[in-house]
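Q: Could you fold this chain for me?
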Amino acid sequence: MKRTSQPRYDLVVEKDVEITLRDGARLRADVFRPRAGGRFPALINIGPYQKDKLWVPPPDLEEKPNPYMNWEAVNPLWWVPRGYAAVRVDTRGSGKSPGETDPFSLQEALDFHDSIEWSAKQPWCSGRVATIGISYFAMTQWLVANLRPPSLKAMIPWEGAADMYRDFAYHGGIFCFGFVTNWYNNHMAHHLLGRRVQDSPEAFSKNWLWQFMRNSLDTGWYHGRQARWDEITIPLYTVGNWSGMGLHLRGNSEAFMRAKSRHKKLRIHAGTHYHPFYAEEARQDQLRFLDRWLKGIDAGIMDEPPVKLLIRTGGGKNYKWRYEKEWPLRRTRWTKFYLRPEKSTGTRGDPVEGALTTTAPRTRSALAYSASGMTKAGVASASWTSTALAGSLPRLGVSFQTDPLSEDLEITGPVNLVLWVSSSTVDMDIFATIRNIDPDGRDVWEIGQQQQQVPVAKGWLRASHRKLDPGLSLPYRPYHAHDERQWLTPGETVPVQVEIWPTCMVFRKGHRMRLDIQPRDGVGSAPYTHYSADYNAGENTVYTGGSTASYLLLPLIPHR
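A: Sure. Below is the predicted structure, expressed as structure tokens.
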């Protein structure tokens, strides 16, 4: 086995290099490359985060501050000495690149394609290019990979939504208002109100938010903003985050299951979305992968099992890695936990309306709750506070929990919540949250991507979007078509399947697993909060038992 590339080169920095695109537009980039003569592979990213904006990392990051750190991008002081060039491109209409900003668009993907091919033709480049980066710099990787740039030889999309409808804007058909609007407006402010860059006077001028809200079904507008798995064939290291429910998890696991790449690996970790990327352990995995596909240096990474999972045991500490041969795990015991009405006390005195049990109730029962997410005095759907206060209002809906566990219980994989429901209205929003409750009745929180407290897992579905794609749906992972609205007939009982994003948790002996079903965002949702159905009145009902047995299908992993 060969060693990976070792530090041996000094750094050269070229600022504001112009890249001419196929339509004559010009982007500006910074190039960080080895000083020595010769040709080196290039690592490239493109985005609106302003290549000249210095990122000062937190003190506990394993990469230390330096003048070249940039948000969510590789550190040139680590990669360039090892014989790689790093190319950072301000996307069209941002930073120092003029034009009209259109994040996650076909135009941006075409610009990325041309930037990759430009890099490959430079005298310092070996002609082999890889994409790498976190979040935005991962999301754009899927879209350019659809176009198959000839010089793109590998990709590491690190925590990147891959479907701008299902992963980013509409979770189960419900608009992710809190993140999408704040993310876009925040970066508009950076360009127009922050340290102004006159090179891009049209920055964020496009009616982008209107377009996303106007296109609330997946009927063609999102085609250029979604990974097309059949067209992604290059070596792929897809990396998700268990805490990334709402943005950076589903796309990465879907990629491993569906991309046509012969050589692909899946890694899922936990915690913030920047600490893991810069960890020494992670950089070594990135380097071994890129050495293999860009330099032909085989350090053995492709001989290891293709799946690497950080197994969560609750509370965010002392988690350990485990290698697996496939995803989902072949030894999974898919187990139904049925919903059964049963009054009891839950977390800190919160009521719990039912139990989760592996035995199906024989008789049919019903639990009703308010269909409106707005029932607090002074808050109404006509007020902007209806979205600003999402996640901070009193609990609504119904909750179910297991008895205290008699032994540790691991769930690792996708989750499907199968419900029988009705409503007195023509639609119904379902927000599902899985929580880990300790013996004292307190939530065991995980560290979220933005360092916030998050529960175990979440899923969402607007009932009018319940139509499934039969070709893509699996028993454990429903795939919704989102191409038409199937309105409810008030009072009619219908089955729905709620996709709960993949998760991993070892629930400890004595703990309880809790499921909340609510008409609005539950605990630990921010910043991925939603514009829920703006009903002023009405009642939703969940049915259990008999011919309408609702259940949570969980991926139980037996002890080895």
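A (continued): The mean pLDDT is 94.
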